[in-house]
């Protein structure tokens, strides 16, 4: 109220006094002859034209000594419209702006909140629609079930009337339950929606009138109301999957009084939310003849366990060679089902799991079946875990290989020829160190001619003539160097983007991990391009992982990838299976890099991110050596590994700029 000093809430407006008045002031008007004829109108009864007149009447300052002063300023500190006298008086040194400028800023702020309010209104409206559709779909199924009920009992005459009444009554009960649960929530949503719409409409009207004083006077109330509405949690839509059906007994005519006429099937199991409990089922590796197990969990639309006798779990297993397997399903009658199957043939198997005829979440799944020998040799599922490195003392550090007077800088690949000549890729020095088994420098390659110049050599390999093959990731090519250091040729610049690991396989092919192209590429011994293959796995962006290093075992390619796996391919480049994964335990990797297979088919893996080397034997046992550090027996990002004729193990210790030598010390060697 602007008429008294009681700070009462205004309920009306006096056009003669040109101010808002409270109930007490109205009574005073009624008892005073000079005021009794004043035109007073209740604020709730105002017409839009009256409202405009009221606001225009508030253009003059309300202070008792400023009646004739026009309001032309706005005090930001006090959130108040003021006149010039106010500005020079009680609002002196306050932050004051012109009314037009304040209005412009106010409209911007209110518009931001108004936009959010509109967005939330649309969101709640969508939620109401989803909830309504959910209920309508449920009712539709109820209607369909009711129709089937009536069709089924139409020929049963009086004997089936009671049954019809019971079934329809049960359906009505289900509908009432759904109505009570869903429509009550819808009513709550609609109430919230009405609040939003009412506020949206009121604010829109205020902004549409573009009355400066009204907008500024109501700014705090508008902002407060918008914040209140925006802070109210938006109700979630109820998208409830309901199964309602009627299962009629077609032979009921012959056994009217003795048979079960039928029963209702009301289920809430949602295939979209049902899942397989075994998270490793997809792309799992197993061996032929190995029994595989997994659990199916049926859930409702909210993710809660759900069970119905008519959920109809079905598991179909088929190989890429059209071999169909029979899956045994055990129903625990609590929403969990145990499934087992035994693949007898190798290949890739697709597993489809359906509930009520619909695929569950994650289905179909892929399982790779290898021979039993391959499974036992290569699968990390058969790794025999051992307690600690200290207990076995399998590997003993021998020291560091002499590599010359000039220190190594970020050594990567290392290889040994049949004559025990060692080649080390000295990456940051842009050269290859050729060393004898005693550690004496034989020669340094890479700086003798323009053709043999290297920028960033990464990996090395020897061919059957003891020529040295080098990948240069910066020049995107492979160099072939004679033992004397002469460059015979270069190849691959047209096909390679950033080559890392290199292998000369048992057939004489040159196999290269093209990190930049995300593929493994094969060249002939003469350097002619043959083909490429990629990992079938993809990352979050839909791209395959990048290959790093490569080795060969039993005519199969083993490739380390930047997704912390080692993947196995046949000689044609067809994917067989993947082992490893991110972790610190045995058989788990972080940034696996250099690979080597020794004469006893043991796979050596430079587990670079874990600062160690893992050794995997054909029987599935695993040993590890090394830990993080700069001393003897320690690594900082091991990069390349190879084994000499006498069994000594050479590991390039990249960040420590050295080549570490090790020896196996127990019967495992």
TrEMBL record:
One of its GO terms (molecular function) is zinc ion binding. It comes from the Eukaryota. InterPro entries: 6-blade_b-propeller_TolB-like, Filamin/ABP280_repeat-like, Filamin/ABP280_rpt, Ig-like_fold, Ig_E-set, NHL_repeat, TRIM-NHL_E3_ligases, Znf_B-box. Signal peptide: none annotated. This is B box-type domain-containing protein. Gene3D superfamilies: Classic Zinc Finger, Immunoglobulins, TolB, C-terminal domain. GO terms for biological process: proteasome-mediated ubiquitin-dependent protein catabolic process; protein polyubiquitination. It holds the Pfam family NHL. It comes from Nematostella vectensis (Starlet sea anemone). Transmembrane segments: none annotated. Keywords: Metal-binding, Repeat, Zinc, Zinc-finger. Residues 1-43, 56-99 form the B box-type domain. Filamin repeats lie at residues 266-369. The lineage of its organism: Eukaryota, Metazoa, Cnidaria, Anthozoa, Hexacorallia. NHL repeats lie at residues 456-484, 485-526, 576-619, 625-665. CDD domains: NHL.
């Amino acid at each position: 109220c602007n008429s008294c000093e009681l700070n009462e809430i205004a309920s009306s407006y006096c056009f003669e006094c040109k101010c808002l008045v409270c109930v007490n002031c109205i009574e005073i008007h009624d008892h005073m002859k000079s005021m009794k004829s004043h035109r007073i109108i209740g604020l709730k009864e105002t017409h839009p034209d009256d409202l405009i007149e009221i606001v225009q009447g508030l253009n003059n300052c309300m202070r008792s000594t400023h009646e004739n002063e026009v309001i032309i300023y706005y005090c930001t500190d006090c959130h108040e419209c003021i006149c010039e006298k106010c500005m020079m008086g009680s609002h002196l040194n306050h932050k004051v702006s012109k009314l037009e400028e304040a209005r412009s800023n106010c409209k911007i702020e209110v518009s931001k909140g108004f936009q959010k309010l509109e967005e939330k209104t649309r969101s709640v409206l969508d939620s109401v629609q989803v909830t309504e559709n959910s209920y309508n779909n449920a009712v539709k199924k109820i209607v369909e079930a009711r129709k089937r009920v009536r069709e089924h009992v139409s020929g049963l005459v009086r004997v089936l009337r009671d049954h019809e009444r019971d079934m329809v009554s049960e359906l009505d009960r289900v509908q009432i339950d759904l109505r009570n649960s869903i429509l009550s929530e819808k009513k709550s949503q609609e109430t919230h929606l009405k609040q939003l719409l009412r506020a949206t409409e009121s604010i829109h009207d205020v902004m549409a009138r573009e009355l400066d004083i009204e907008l500024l006077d109501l700014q705090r109330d508008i902002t407060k109301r918008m914040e209140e509405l925006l802070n109210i949690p938006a109700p979630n839509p109820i998208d409830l999957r309901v199964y309602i059906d009627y299962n009629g007994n077609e032979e009921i005519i012959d056994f009217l009084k003795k048979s079960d006429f039928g029963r209702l099937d009301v289920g809430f199991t949602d295939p979209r939310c049902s899942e397989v409990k075994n998270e490793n089922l997809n792309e799992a590796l197993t061996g032929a003849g190995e029994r595989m197990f997994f659990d199916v969990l049926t859930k409702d639309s909210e993710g809660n366990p759900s069970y119905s006798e008519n959920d109809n779990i079905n598991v179909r297993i088929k190989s890429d060679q059209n071999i169909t397997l029979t899956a045994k399903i055990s129903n625990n009658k609590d929403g969990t089902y145990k499934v087992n199957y035994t693949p007898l043939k190798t290949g890739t198997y697709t597993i489809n799991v359906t509930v009520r005829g619909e695929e569950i979440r994650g289905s179909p799944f892929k399982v790779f079946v290898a021979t039993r020998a391959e499974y036992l040799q290569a699968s990390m599922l058969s790794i025999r875990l051992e307690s600690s490195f200290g207990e076995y003392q399998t590997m003993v550090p021998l020291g560091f290989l002499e590599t010359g007077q000039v220190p190594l800088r970020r050594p990567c690949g290392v290889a040994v020829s049949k004559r025990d000549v060692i080649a080390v890729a000295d990456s940051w020095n842009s050269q290859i160190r050729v060393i004898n088994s005693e550690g004496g420098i034989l020669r340094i390659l890479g700086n003798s001619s323009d053709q043999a110049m290297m920028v960033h050599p990464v990996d090395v390999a020897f061919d059957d003539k003891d020529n040295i093959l080098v990948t240069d990731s910066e020049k995107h090519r492979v160099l072939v160097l004679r033992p004397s250091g002469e460059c015979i040729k270069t190849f691959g610049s047209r096909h390679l983007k950033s080559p890392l690991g290199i292998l000369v396989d048992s057939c004489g092919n040159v196999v290269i991990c093209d990190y930049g192209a995300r593929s493994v590429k094969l060249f002939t011994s003469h350097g002619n391009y043959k083909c490429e293959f990629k990992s079938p796995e993809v990352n979050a962006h839909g791209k395959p992982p990048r290959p790093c290093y490569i080795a060969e075992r039993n005519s199969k390619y083993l490739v380390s990838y930047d997704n912390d796996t080692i993947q196995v391919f046949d000689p044609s480049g067809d994917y067989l299976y993947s082992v490893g994964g991110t972790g610190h335990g045995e058989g788990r990797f972080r940034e696996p890099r250099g690979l080597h297979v020794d004469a006893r088919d043991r796979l050596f893996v430079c587990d670079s991110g874990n600062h160690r080397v893992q050794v995997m034997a054909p029987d599935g046992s695993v040993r590890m050596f090394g830990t993080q550090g700069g001393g003897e027996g320690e690594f900082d990002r091991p990069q390349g590994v190879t084994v000499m004729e006498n069994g000594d193990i050479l590991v390039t210790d990249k960040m420590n700029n050295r080549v570490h030598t090790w020896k196996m010390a127990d019967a495992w060697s």
